[in-house]
Amino acid sequence: MALSVSGGTVFTVLLISRLLESSLLNAEVKEGEILPPTIQRLMKGYNKYLRPFFDNGPVTVGMSLDIASIDTISEINMDYTATIFLRQRWTDERLVFEGNKSLSLDGRLVELLWVPDTFIVDSKKSFLHDITVENRLIRIFPNGTVLYALRITTTVACNMDLTKYPMDKQTCTLQLESWGYNINDVMFYWTRGNESVSGLDSLQLAQYTVEDHYTSVSEAIYETGHYPRLVFHFELKRSILYFILETYVPSSLLVVLSWVSFWISLSSVPARICIGVTTVLTMTTLMMGARTSLPNANCFIKAIDVYLGICFSFIFGALIEYAVAHFCTLTHADAHMLMYGHRMHDFDDEMNGIITTISTHSNRAKRRKEPTATSPSVPASTELAVSPSSPSGSEPKPEAAPPEHTNWCLTVLATLRKILRAIYCCHVENPHHIDNYSRVTFPLSFVIVNLLYWTYYLYF
Hints:
This protein is an alpha+beta fold. Among the domains are: 26-239, Acetylcholine Binding Protein, Chain: A; 243-333 and 448-459, Neurotransmitter-gated ion-channel transmembrane domain (Methane Monooxygenase Hydroxylase, Chain G, domain 1, Up-down Bundle). Helix content is 43%, strand content 23%. The protein is built from 8 helices and 12 strands. It has helices spanning 2-30, 37-43, 241-258, 269-291, 303-369, 380-385, 404-425, 432-459, and strands at residues 59-74, 79-91, 103-105, 118-120, 123-128, 136-140, 145-157, 169-178, 186-190, 197-198, 208-222, 225-238. The strands form 2 sheets. Strands 1, 2, 3, 5, 6, 7, 9 and 10 form an 8-stranded mixed beta sheet that branches. A 4-stranded antiparallel beta sheet has the order 4-8-12-11, with no helix packed on it. A hairpin with a 4-residue loop joins strand 6 (136-140) and strand 7 (145-157). The longest helix has 67 residues, at 303-369. The radius of gyration is 49 Å and the shape is elongated. One of its GO terms (cellular component) is apical plasma membrane. Belongs to the ligand-gated ion channel (TC 1.A.9) family. Gamma-aminobutyric acid receptor (TC 1.A.9.5) subfamily. GABRP sub-subfamily. Residues 361-403 are annotated as: Disordered. Residues 247-454 form the Neurotransmitter-gated ion-channel transmembrane domain.
């Protein structure tokens, strides 16, 4: 009973396919387009819903590509748009005919034939060109080989690593896969290996050059089975000349412009502040403009961001240098005034000492001239000076021990004295020397940082 039911199902499917084929042929005849006798003989009994070699193993499909153009490569969307000529070849034993010439058919007759269900794996959006008619080519050879070509424009995803942008290299792929037929039904292969893809040598891209390309064959594993897959790899290298002229040279010149303030006098406050603030604001605008054309959703720290950050740091450092030099100028003037005050105070003390010494000598001379009076009794003050507890009167009274808080105060004062000595070591004797040092250290540091930057991002 089960066999009869399955046999009835197959018969029903074959009957429906025959009816559809006859309806298509009748439609062609109704439109006044009579098929050639050879095509009519080939189409007689042909079932396009069954693949070639349905019961005799998988059908092998050869692929080749022509890259007509790569229109855009977007870092923001991480994809590229390309127009390709996709050519597929396979052998269908039902289309064998006598003769030595191939048959080139109208592209609309492809609806009467079985074709592979090939699709582009990472395609975001694709369309088949249809101006002035659908850009399809169908050609049948006497041995039953079918050539099927399409012109397709597709937008394909490409995962990019922008860490070294704009000195980066990106490897993108174009993957072709069968949608419904697994490896037991269809096998894909490149017709000429790496030479199966052509057109890349003549491409002219805006920011990139194609360095290398190669092909590979793999299998896609899904829950529904193993499917054939062909992969075309191509490596793109970004041209850095545009970014050197657009970003690197202007940012470097802004850094050099900020060094002009080192040759301006410290007293010219408006001139130096104007140069510092202008270069900082211009560098900020340049950084914002460089980031507008790059993706903001990801967390890439790009090479161009590092360089712009370095330039901004040097420009901001030049502005801070003037603030420090100007502050040292003010403190240096106060120190001069304070030193002058200390010197005047010492001079006054010295004059007071000289006057005191002169008056002391004159008093002694007067006392020598006066007769000395002898007194028989000892002064009371002398008696009071002798301690009553001392029997001899010659031992002095013991002094009291210093309090503990006095030792603590001395320790604090010693610590403060050490701190003041350390600060004095960093004291700038002449603030004008800061500009002299900056004229050498800033350019030298910038050259060293540039050497390290370009060496790392170009060779590592």
